[in-house]
Amino acid sequence: MKFKAASALAALAFASSFAHADFLDWSDTSIGYRYGTQFREPYNRQDIAKNIVNFTHADGFKYGTNYLNIDVLKSDSKDSDATETYIVYRNTLDLGKITGSSFAFGPVRGLGITSGFDWNHKNDPGYASRKQMVVLGPTVMMDVPGFLNIGVLALWESNEPNSIDRRYYYKTHPALSVTWAIPLGDTNLSFEGYLNWIAPKGKDEFGNNTATETNFDGILWYDAGVPLNWGKNKFRVGLEYQYWRNKFGNPSSVPGSLAKTPQIRAEYHF
């Protein structure tokens, strides 16, 4: 599938899902803040502090779910005081809901098709990423409290940084994507996050071989709104840890390609 065709499919899923907002089964929207001092960027040997504000929306509708997250990341002087915006959208269509048939078996609750896109813009004076990526592939939805989804996705990625005068398209490549949000018993705690294993995407725009990328991000949340009498799932605080190996496909020989980043986090739900 060509990049433009995949882009059109993702855009269609986005538009059709939100066009039926009045028919949502459930909806959750939040704003949040997180902070860490050990972020890394490729070709930068220093630990970087970042303040991050995010807007997140998730919902369920007749045939599946939507997820939208917008991060605005502000780096300190070790990353040129850069500001980055990163947008992620995912739509998962539930095949059982669409067909009226059950796809449950063993530990599996159902099967789906996931599509979506990533988009970013960073204003640093060096690389200045302008990433665009479309994703598409099957998803297995596990039968657990909360949710645990495992997807095998095809990625169509491109970039147009400062150093080149055209948009560069990487080789189409696969990824294993795991996302979860699991409550921990009857406590006010939950464990949420994602794990992306991304295969090499061929040569980068400078002719270098790319490497297998591993990005784990886990959050232990505490529902602080309950003891504050604000209501359940209104205000949460958490401890987050990100492990990112071969960041953006850069091999381990590149300084800054490995990040081990603890963070503090808080979010308010509308």
UniProtKB/TrEMBL annotation:
The keyword Signal applies. Keywords: Signal, Viral envelope protein, Virion. It comes from the Bacteria. Residues 1-21 form the signal peptide. This is Outer envelope protein. It comes from Variovorax robiniae.
